[in-house]
Amino acid sequence: MIYVNWYHHNMPKIFGVLSFIVNPLFIYLVITRSRSQMGNYRYLLIGFAVFDMVYSTAELLTPIAVLNSGYGFVTFITEGPFFENLEYGLHGVSTRCCFVSMSYAVLIIHFVYRYLILFYPQHVDKMLQPLGIIAMFLFFSAHGAFWTWICEECLAPNDEIRDIIRPAFQEVHHVNSDRISLLTGQYRNASDYVVYKSWIGISALTLFSMYCMTVYFVLGYQIMRKMNESCNMTHISVNLNRQLFKALVAQTCIPMFASFLPTIIAWYAPIFLINLTWWNNYVCNIALSAFPLIDPIVVIYFIPNYKNTLLVWLKLRKPKTSFTTTSMISTAFTS
Predict the structure, then answer these.
(1) Most confident of the following: 110-114, 251-255, 314-318
(2) What sections of the protein cross the membrane (predicted)?
(3) What percent of the chain has pLDDT above 90?
(4) Is 73 in a helix, a strand, or coil?
(5) Cα angle at 104 between 100 and 107, to 5 degrees?
(6) 299 CB contacts (<8 Å, ≥6 apart)?
(7) How far is CA 104 from CA 28, 38, 76, 184, 292, in A?
(8) Is residue 262 in some structural domain?
(9) Which of 213, 285, 284 is closest to 249 using CA atoms?
(10) Residue 123 buriedness (CB in 10 A; 0-12 / 13-18 / 19+)
(11) Digit-coded pLDDT (tens) for 93-113
(12) How far is the C-alpha of 313 from the C-alpha of 24, rounded, in Å?
C-alpha cells in the first residue's frame, strides 16, 4: 500500500459507503414514488443509480493517486486486490479511469431521451425496447472500451518511463516504481517514441471528452429552446420537463467539474512544469470519488416527489395528503 494522505486514503471510502446507502434509497424512491408518473424514464434513472454503485465499487477496488514528475504525470494504484500484480494492476487502473468516459455516455443517453421526449415522442419507446437497450449498451461499452484502449496503448509505461519516474517515486513515496501499476504521460525529456505516444494518448482523451461536452451543450440548447417555445405542450408538461431538465443539467455539471476540468488540469499542467500533485490527490481524486454520491442527491433535490418524501422521513416536513402532483405529472409521461 502507498499512503498518500488522510483525505486521499479515507474520503473515497467514506463516499463509497455513502453511495451504497444513498443510491439504493434513490432506487426505492424512483420505484415507489414515480411508477405512474414518469413512465419508462424511471428505468433510466434506476440504471444511472446502478452505474453509480458500480463506479463506487471500482473506486474502492482500485484507488488511484497522481504524481507529477517534471514534464510528465503518473497515475498509479495505491492499494487493493490488484496492487501486487503489475499486469492485473494495469488493467485495473485503465478500467478505473474508463469510468470517466462511461459516466459521459450515461449522461448522453439521458440527454437523447429528453430530446426525443420533446422532438420525437413517437420514438421514445424504441429506446427501451430490446434493440434500443442493446444499442445503448453498445454505446456505453464503446465509451469505456475506447478510453481503456487509449490508456493501455498510449499511456502504459515501458522501461524508459520507469527509469524517468523512479527518482520522483523514491523521493515522494519512498517506493520502487518498478513494482507499481501505473499510467503515465511524458511530454519532454524522453525519447521521441515516448513523447509522441503520450501526446497521441492525451490528445485522443481530450478530444473524446470535448466531443461529450459538445453533445451536452448542443442537445441541452435544443431542449431548452423547445421548452421555451412549448407550443404544443400543456403548462403542466412544460413544468415537469423543466424540473427534469434542471436535474439533468445539474447531473452534467457534476462530471464536468468533478471529472472533465480536474483531468484536463492534471494532464496539461506538467507541460508548463506546474507541479499539481497536491491538487490531484487532495481535490481531483476525491472529487472523482464523490460523483456517485452527489449524483442521486441532485436528482432527489430537483424532483419534488422524491425530495418531499425524504423530508417527511427525516421529520423535516409534515406529510400531506394530496393527489395534485400525481395527476399533474402523469400527463407528461404516458409511455
Answers:
(1) 110-114
(2) 14-31, 43-66, 93-116, 128-150, 199-223
(3) 47
(4) strand
(5) 140
(6) 26, 45, 48, 247, 250, 251, 306
(7) 24, 23, 22, 22, 13
(8) yes
(9) 213
(10) exposed
(11) 999 999 999 999 998 998 899
(12) 15
- Domain-located, residue 335: no
| Rounded-to-integer distance, Cα 248 and Cα 106, Å | 11
Residue 260 CA: distances (Å) to CA of 97, 252, 295:
12, 10, 15
Contact 194, 99 (CB under 8 A): no
Considering only CA atoms, which of 302, 206, 310 is closest in space to residue 253?
302
Burial of 229 (0-12, 13-18, 19+ CB in 10 A): exposed
According to DSSP H, which parts of the chain are helical? 6-33, 41-61, 86-119, 124-127, 130-154, 159-172, 192-229, 235-255, 261-268, 277-279, 285-302, 304-313, 324-330
Residue at 30: amino acid letter: V
Domain count, the chain: 1
pTM, to two decimals:
0.86
Length of the chain: 335
Residue 74, helix vs strand vs coil: strand
Pairing of strands 182-186, 64-68: unpaired
First to last CA, the chain: 51
Domain range for 114: 6-330
Please indicate, yes or no, if residue 294 is contained in any of the structural domains. Answer: yes
Residue 107 lies in a domain: yes
**How distant is the alpha carbon of residue 233 from its chain centre?**
32
CATH of the domain at 224: 1.20.1070.10
